[in-house]
From TrEMBL:
Location relative to the cell: Cytoplasm
Keywords: Cytoplasm, Kinase, Transferase
Family listed: Belongs to the aminoglycoside phosphotransferase family.
Any one Gene Ontology molecular-function term assigned to this protein's record: amino acid kinase activity
Domain of life according to the entry: Eukaryota
GO cellular component: cytoplasm
Key word Kinase present: yes
InterPro entries (alphabetical): Kinase-like_dom_sf, Pseudomonas-type_ThrB
Protein name: Hydroxylysine kinase isoform X2
């Protein structure tokens, strides 16, 4: 995900590839024959669920993948993608149910492609990952046991990542990244999206409480 840019900036930088274009990229960049492709939800990148046609001489190839096309801003920062890929590989080796990264025909994990938009050229980083079947938690009944399992997995993930090392790890520390929990105050600029209602009052209270009770003590917390 990109930094806390405005909705207008996100609209300008988010990829807008058609299914036909995405299918052609999978075949030309990664060498897989696509039998079916459909869009997946995304924030400021673009994702596609890709079904791969297997051949007899490629029986070990994945049958389903996710094509991830990064927005133009993230695509200017390949080191960030490199660290993300490192985390994915690290967690996979540690036994977590994570996706695997697919190599390009040139044996790379990413590929930078350019597209003519009619008003200029935009470049986007591509990645292809194996597809993990499953169901979003929001679509299934919640139980205490399920919440326990989620919490247990999150704690195990957190403890495991304490041992992750990468020479470019510092690139993840982005002061303007709204998805970093320590940057809760940055959400104030989006309060208008809530209108004038009780939900807005609650959010405002939480942000002010965070600024008073958490921000002042951030240096004492493990990161």
């Amino acid at each position: 995900m990109a930094s806390g840019a405005s909705q207008q900036t996100q609209a300008l930088t988010k990829p807008a590839f058609t299914e036909a274009q995405a299918s052609a990229l999978v075949e030309s960049v990664f060498g897989f024959k696509v039998s079916k492709i459909q869009p997946l939800p995304s924030y400021d990148d673009q994702n596609f669920h890709v079904h791969i046609s297997r051949t007899e001489d490629a029986a070990d190839d994945p049958t389903e993948c996710v094509l991830k096309i990064s927005n133009t801003e993230t695509s200017k920062n390949p080191d960030l993608i490199e660290v993300q890929n490192g985390v994915i590989t690290f967690l996979k080796a540690a036994g977590f149910p994570t996706a695997s990264l697919c190599h390009t025909k040139e044996d790379n994990l990413t590929s930078l492609v350019s597209i003519d938009t009619g008003s200029g050229t935009r470049s986007h980083l591509l990645r292809l990952l194996t597809f993990l079947p499953g169901c979003p938690v929001a679509q299934i009944p919640i139980s205490p046991q399920l919440l326990y399992e989620i919490g247990r997995l999150a704690a195990k993930l957190d403890k495991t990542l304490e041992t992750f090392h990468h020479p470019k790890l510092g690139i993840l520390r982005r002061d303007d990244f709204i998805w970093n929990l320590k940057n809760v105050p940055l959400l104030e600029k989006y309060l208008d999206a809530l209108g004038q209602n009780r939900n807005r009052e609650i959010v405002e209270q939480v942000i002010q409480l965070f600024k008073k009770e958490v921000v002042t003590k951030l240096s004492h917390f493990r990161e």
